[in-house]
Design goal:
By secondary structure, this protein is α/β, with parallel strands linked by helices. The chain contains 11 helices and 13 strands. It folds into 2 domains: about 170 residues, 3-Layer(aba) Sandwich (Peroxisomal Thiolase, Chain A, domain 1), CATH 3.40.47; about 150 residues, Peroxisomal Thiolase, Chain A, domain 1 (3-Layer(aba) Sandwich). Strands 1-7-6-4-5 form a 5-stranded mixed sheet, with helices on both faces. It starts with a strand and ends with a strand. Bound molecules: oxa(dethia)-CoA (UT7). Oxa(dethia)-CoA binds next to helix 2, helix 6, helix 8 and strand 12.
Length: about 325
C-alpha cells in the first residue's frame, strides 16, 4: 500500500479582527473572563460578502503555491466544513470551479471540528488504494455566520478561517503514519445548530427563537473533549508505533487553551511541544488544525523528519488523530 504525505500547506483568515474589548460592548462579558476561561484574545470575522468558499479558496491557492502544484493536476478536492455556502451544491464544487481544477472530483465532508483529520484520512485512503495521486484537503469555516451575537456563552468563542493541505504518494514509513477516527452520536445534542436542516426546516418561528445559531453545553463538552483527545493521541501513537517522547509537536483543535493544556499534561508533553494560536483566531472548528499547522511550518517549528501529531474533537461527537512524519 502506498503511503501519503503532505507536500504543501496554506491558510487564510479574513482581515477584519474582533477583539475581546469589542465584545465587551456587545454582550455582558469581559476581556479578563474570556482570556482566563479560554485563552482567546481576538478572532477574524468574515464580512457580509464573504462565505466559506471564499476563505477556503484563498487557503487552497496558498497550499497549491507552497506545493508548486497546478490546479489542473488535482484529482480530488475535499472540503471539511460545518458552514457550507449552501446546503447544496457542495462548497468543494464551488472551489473546484474557481481554482480551475478541471479534472478534480469534489465533495464536502462534515465531521465538525474533526473534519480536517477526517479529510486527511479519506485522502490517505484514496492514495493508498492507488485511485488518486494528488488531493487537496481544505477545512474552511465562516462560523461567525451561525454565531448568536446575543449569547455570551458562545459568541466569544468562535472565529472564521481556513487551512489547506496537498497530499501526494510517499514511500512507506514517510508522511501520514497513522490516522484514528471515532464518533459517538449519543451526545449529538450537546453541540449543534437546531434548525435549518430537514429535522427543523427554516420557519418564521425557528428564526424568532434563534434556532439557526450554534448551541453548546460548554461544560459537558469540555470534559469529554479532554478525555477523547487524550485517548485519540494515545491510540494514534500506538498505531504509528511512535513513543510520546519522540514527538516534536502536538497540534490539537484550538477550542480552549485549558483543554489543550489538560491534554498535553495527561500525555506528559512539555509546553514547548504544544502549538497554540487560538489567542489570535478563537475556535475556527475544522479550520483550526490546518491554520495552526501552516503557521507552525512557516515559523520553522516543524522541520523535515519531525514527528507531529494532530488531534481533534468536535460536534457529533467526533474525535480523531493523525501522526505525521514531516
Ligand atoms: O469546538 C468543539 C469543542 N468545543 C469545546 O471544546 C468547548 C468546550 N467548552 C469550553 O471551552 C468552556 O466550557 C467554555 C469556555 C465554553 C465555558 O467555560 P466554563 O469554565 O466551562 O464556564 P461555564 O460555562 O461553567 O460558566 C461559568 C460562569 C457562568 O456563570 P455562573 O453560573 O457561574 O454565575 C456563566 O454564566 O461564567 C458565565 N459566563 C460568562 N461570563 C462572562 C459564560 N460565558 C461568559 C462570558 N463572559 N462570555
Amino acid at each position: 500500500m502506498r503511503s501519503a504525505k503532505i507536500v504543501g500547506v496554506g491558510s487564510y483568515a479574513p482581515p477584519k479582527v474582533l477583539t475581546n474589548k469589542d465584545l465587551e460592548k456587545m454582550v455582558d462579558t469581559s476581556n479578563e473572563w474570556i482570556i482566563e476561561r479560554t485563552g482567546i484574545r481576538e478572532r477574524h470575522i468574515a464580512d457580509d460578502k464573504t462565505a466559506t468558499s471564499d476563505i477556503g479558496l484563498e487557503a487552497a491557492r496558498r497550499a497549491l503555491e507552497d506545493a508548486r502544484i497546478n490546479p489542473e493536476e488535482l484529482d480530488l478536492i475535499i472540503v471539511a466544513t460545518v458552514t457550507p455556502d449552501f446546503i447544496f451544491p457542495a462548497t468543494a464544487c464551488l472551489i473546484q470551479d474557481r481554482l480551475g481544477a478541471k479534472k478534480a472530483a469534489a465533495f464536502d465532508l462534515e465531521a465538525a471540528c474533526s473534519g480536517f483529520i477526517y479529510g486527511l484520512s479519506v485522502a490517505r485512503g484514496f492514495i493508498a488504494s492507488g485511485e488518486y495521486d494528488t488531493i487537496l484537503v481544505i477545512a474552511s469555516e465562516a462560523l461567525t455566520k451561525i454565531t448568536d451575537w446575543e449569547d455570551r456563552a458562545t459568541c466569544v468563542l468562535f472565529g472564521d478561517g481556513a487551512g489547506a493541505a496537498i497530499l501526494k504518494p510517499a514511500e512507506e514509513g514517510q508522511g501520514i503514519l497513522s490516522s484514528y477516527l471515532r464518533a459517538d452520536g449519543g451526545n449529538w445534542d450537546l453541540l449543534r445548530v437546531p434548525a435549518g436542516g430537514s429535522r427543523l426546516p427554516a420557519t418564521h418561528d425557528s428564526i424568532d427563537k434563534r434556532l439557526h445559531y450554534m448551541k453548546m453545553e460548554g461544560n459537558k463538552v469540555f470534559k469529554i473533549a479532554v478525555q477523547s483527545m487524550t485517548e485519540a493521541a494515545i491510540e494514534g501513537l500506538k498505531r504509528a508505533k511512535i513513543k510520546i517522547k519522540d514527538l516534536s509537536l502536538l497540534i490539537t483543535h484550538q477550542a480552549n487553551a485549558r483543554i489543550i493544556n489538560a491534554v498535553a499534561k495527561r500525555l506528559g508533553l512539555p509546553p514547548e511541544k504544544v502549538y497554540i494560536n487560538l489567542d489570535r483566531y478563537g475556535n475556527t472548528s475544522a479550520a483550526s488544525i490546518p491554520l495552526a499547522l501552516d503557521e507552525a511550518v512557516k515559523k520553522g517549528k516543524i522541520k523535515k523528519g519531525d514527528l507531529v501529531i494532530l488531534v481533534a474533537f468536535g460536534g457529533g461527537f467526533t474525535w480523531a488523530s493523525a501522526v505525521i512524519k514531516w
